[in-house]
Request: fold
Amino acid sequence: MPKSARIKLKKPCYHIITWGNQKQTVFKNPEDYQKYLLLVTEHKDKFKFRLFCFCLMTNHVHLIIEVDDPQDLNKIVSSLNLSYALYFNLKYKRSGELWQNKFKSNIIDEDAYLIECIRHIEYSPVRNSLVSAIYQYPWSSYNFQQSKILDNLYQL
Reply:
């Protein structure tokens, strides 16, 4: 039996993972999570990328984004990380690196893989025993897709 053809995305997406330096906590309270999401929204307006999924864990971030030009990926993530680090360092009266040197990015170029990555990311809080059910975790795209709180995150 022949294999079925894989469906290719028109534009590749990227699964971005950014860890706190030495896996330190980067979100200490709800205001920090909210600030990061606000910065994502501002960066979407500035860099014109599409956000498919996110999950903010205490010491790292998962994003799935689509960009028109893959060359923009580094500018987007670096600018977002720098903006949040400036906020965090000022708020907590600290200095130094907040994030590990380089973010990790995996290319997603097929629909089935995109769906699997979204599932993996949105279940991270359950796998890490932060909650017992996915809908209980407030800082992932799963809940934002269910509400109107940050609709602009999903729009270009």
The first strand starts at residue 8 and ends at 19. The beta strands are 8-19, 50-56, 60-66, 104-110. The mean pLDDT is 86. The first helix runs from residue 30 to 47.
